[in-house]
Protein 1
Amino acid sequence: MAEAPEDVHTDECLSTYTHIYSQDLLKDQVAFITGGGSGIGFRITEVLMRHGCDTVIASRNLEKLTEAAKKLTSATGRHCLPLQMDVRQPDTISTAVDEMLKEFGRVDILINNAAGNFLCPAAALSFNAFKTVLEIDTMGTFNTSKVVYEKWFKDHGGSIVNISATLGYKGQALQVHAGSAKAANDAMTRHLAVEWGPSGVRVNTVAPGPISGTEGYRRLGGSHAESAGIFRTIPLQRAGNKTEMAHTVLFLASRAASYVTGATVVADGGAWLTSANDVERLLDLWSQEKRKDK
Ligand SMILES: CC/C=C\C/C=C\C/C=C\C/C=C\C/C=C\C/C=C\C=C\C(=O)SCCNC(=O)CCNC(=O)[C@H](O)C(C)(C)COP(=O)(O)OP(=O)(O)OC[C@H]1O[C@@H](n2cnc3c(N)ncnc32)[C@H](O)[C@@H]1OP(=O)(O)O
Ligand SMILES: NC(=O)C1=CN([C@@H]2O[C@H](COP(=O)(O)OP(=O)(O)OC[C@H]3O[C@@H](n4cnc5c(N)ncnc54)[C@H](OP(=O)(O)O)[C@@H]3O)[C@@H](O)[C@H]2O)C=CC1
């Protein structure tokens, strides 16, 4: 089995961290990470800061962000600014980006990580539920990219990394909303790479498979999948961890990927190549969980 780097299954900073890139890779740069207060976004923020970067973490829950920013600043010695923002509301994004530029005077990297998801069969999904996920995942990515582009990247260049998912690559039960939203984001990555390349903006995507120790993993039945042995069908035979995602994002965000744009880097242990996608079993598990909730 391929070896995984150290990780912890909470939103605490890593107790020890071994650099696998130069510690100065992002020296004196500034990164804006949506959903940076928890899960994969938290670890991306930590790893970027450990490579010399100051950060802004932005999402709806300011209390959670403030707590996260304290931990990140204390663990890395770099500055992390928490800002409240809803990716569905462009005016809140605009205010947050203005605050960031006032505080740091620049932005070099945008990570579009915020998303919403849950398991639900298409037939049980309300029209509003489908719309909500598209508004957060797809429109939220566009809204944030456009505001940052207009306010800074258009004149100074920059690097955008979107967080997608491989769950839609073969089609997956209970995931029509998220699979559709993330597929649109993969396409958006290519379109924006073409339009904004002449301004010195690179746009890329990391597409994770199941990543343990996050709210998304819990909501999507990650521990059920573990105990049911579903991850044995993944070529690397395990779920990924948050540090592995952060290292993939760091590569794309940094000058190490200076000639890479419009790319989607799949970081899923090969999961989508072999996904068994046992529809009846997933529907059955979903119904059992629903009965438990009642
Ligand atoms: C149980 C186990 C069964 C099977 C599993 C077995 C095996 C699985 C195998 C492998 C999977 C293993 C691991 C996972 C692998 C990959 C994961 C891939 C992608 C992961 C993506 C993410 O993780 S995204 C991040 C997850 N985090 C969050 O979602 C946090 C943020 N979320 C939210 O804010 C909310 O949940 C929200 C998205 C609903 C938005 O909130 P809000 O704006 O307040 O919206 P609401 O007003 O609450 O709702 C809007 C409409 O949506 C309907 N809704 C809400 N929740 C559900 C639900 N759970 N099911 C169905 N519908 C829902 C709600 O009713 C509203 O619609 P109306 O019509 O009623 O208005
Ligand atoms: N975990 C996994 O197995 C996988 C995850 N992914 C992707 O990785 C990314 C991170 O997911 P993960 O860490 O698991 O989940 P989390 O739930 O921990 O992260 C989601 C983040 O998005 C923020 N967010 C949600 N809605 C909004 C909004 N409207 N405006 C601003 N911020 C918002 C949340 O903060 P707040 O509540 O404060 O707004 C939260 O910090 C997502 O893009 C997800 O789709 C992809 C494949 C697999």
Protein 2
Amino acid sequence: MNTQATPTAIADETLAQPTAAVIDGKAASARLLEEVTAEVASLAQQGVIPGLAVVLVGEDPASQVYVRNKLKRTVECGMQSFEHILPSETREAELLALVARLNADADVHGILVQLPLPAHIQEDAVLEAIDPAKDVDGFHRMNVGALVQGADALAPCTPTGCMRLLRDTFAERGGDLSGLHAVIIGRSNIVGKPMASLLLAANCSVTQLHSRSQNPAELCRQADIVVAAVGRPNMIGADWIKPGAVVIDVGINRIAQSAEQSPTGKARTRLVGDVNFAAVSKIAGAITPVPGGVGPMTIACLLANTLTAARRQSA
Ligand SMILES: Nc1nc(=O)c2c([nH]1)NC[C@@H]1CN(c3ccc(C(=O)N[C@@H](CCC(=O)O)C(=O)O)cc3)C=[N+]21
């Protein structure tokens, strides 16, 4: 902002504008996918085509959209994709039998079972049945333990994507994450907890906030880095953010959109994050948008994990 030549002349205008840099997750994911594509091509010359199996149980429309996007990107990268869409009444035993077949299939290097599963299926039984070497989600206990210990493991895709965005953002400013205070809002197994392990490995001081935390906004205001992963639309307001902090918004919330707001003029839904973007972008140093932030990075990291798994299995 101090690069502005005539600050006095534009003061009123800049007050109304977002001051934060908007972190472009689409561009970052395109760069990562380009790297993955090149490496898939070189692995293919050795006769190995990385294969990703995606298993979806039930007909949840949002899940179907993610699965379709994953398949599209998988093929674009030159990988093989194996799609298994099972009815919502599928028995746990049938799903476990499918996982066992995928574990034994040498053409399948990565297995993703889309969560959440229907209530009658025990999620951990399924996750623990996946061969840890093929667990590209990083949800198996073996990989969770390795991550906590700082060992080389397949790490969950969304937190890995957040780390890439953070590293790029600080690298652009000529720095790194070491010694910075990171506040994570949320303690889920798929985002909050692995995020803490990754930030710690990057030498951050890590604070984890959750639904029982006292004075969360006050604690969050001490953060250089904020990672919001709660699943509550627009929960994080400007009063949670220290000026200049880097804000990563993991939330993907579908909320009703009135007909007037909709580009098509029809009442529909729109995606918003856990962070109130309009308010926070006036105070943060950098912020990810929703959509176009963390989401695309998740898919790119899934394919990067699949490449890693394929390399290890064919070494
Ligand atoms: N075993 C498992 N692993 C997962 O990684 C997993 C899962 N289950 N269950 C569901 C969630 C959700 N998820 C998303 C990935 C990409 C976008 C994404 O690319 N979103 C786009 C927009 C998509 C849209 O417009 O709907 C964006 O944020 O720009 C979103 C959501 C992975 N998940």
